[in-house]
Amino acid sequence: MAILLTGATGYIGSHVLQILRAQGRDVVALVRDESKARQVEAAGATAAIGTIGDRGLVEQLATDSDGVIQLAAPGDGSDAEVTETFVDAVLAGLEGSDKPFVHTSGIWVYGSNADISETSPLDPPALTAWRVPLDERVQKAEGVKTTVIAPGIVYGHGGGIPALVAGADQVDGALQLIGSGDQHWTTVFVDDLAELYVLAFDLAEGGSRYIGAGGDNPTVHELGVAAATAAGLEGRVVPTTIDEVHAKLGVPFGDALLLDQQARGTSARIDLGWEPNGPTLVEELRSGSYTG
């Protein structure tokens, strides 16, 4: 039997797959097509071609697995419906087995908060409001060892949302910020986050929830200065208005990036022995890893 992994060719999932294979563990990766199948097979996984919205296939794969790690999302506006279908299938396939199911949420469900913990009140922006009832359902599922992971803004190796900071428009020799730049982003290095998923799969208790945050919470202004330094602009940045953010990124996504959030990820360290030790996002941006 093997671990069923979705999103294995994606930004986070590819790092999770790398860790699992380095540990000598068998993985079945659910992928959409033959090209992605070849990619995961080259990494040592067994490919199953299909989609996370194929309930029958997902239920059978879950039943045949040692447990499930979920990282895939359609990203096409159907996330809520398709992810709900996937969760239905996984819970049906694992019902009564007490096998682990690690489900992905996100830090934005907590809204603006200067000290987010797992028990903080939820205040999601419109973009992620659909996650709240689904996360709750996963946590309360019986007969399955469920864990919900809420990652911060993921970065590293030039990937993730921070590429928007480094690739922002320049105005009069200054890099445009996302908003005023006063808001904090709670962040996590992608390699560290991948380790958290594996630890949660192995060690977390059923019904648990963990914030995936490395503990560094820079302001967007600090990120912009680092990116502008790497771009040869001597750290020069310029703020933008909320209307400008909405015009460029859309209202739902823009509002999420304007949230002011800080978190430490303490519970995962205490309960699971997680030790995030990657570079900070400021260091990554300043090093030029996001400049191409």
TrEMBL record:
Xref: Pfam families: Epimerase
InterPro entries according to UniProt: Epimerase_deHydtase, NAD(P)-bd_dom_sf, NAD(P)-dependent_oxidoreduct
GO cellular component term of the entry, any: cytoplasm
PANTHER family on file: NAD(P)-BINDING DOMAIN-CONTAINING PROTEIN-RELATED, PROTEIN YEEZ
Domain NAD-dependent epimerase/dehydratase: 3-204
Species name: Cnuibacter physcomitrellae
Protein name: Epimerase
GO molecular function, one term: aldehyde dehydrogenase (NAD+) activity
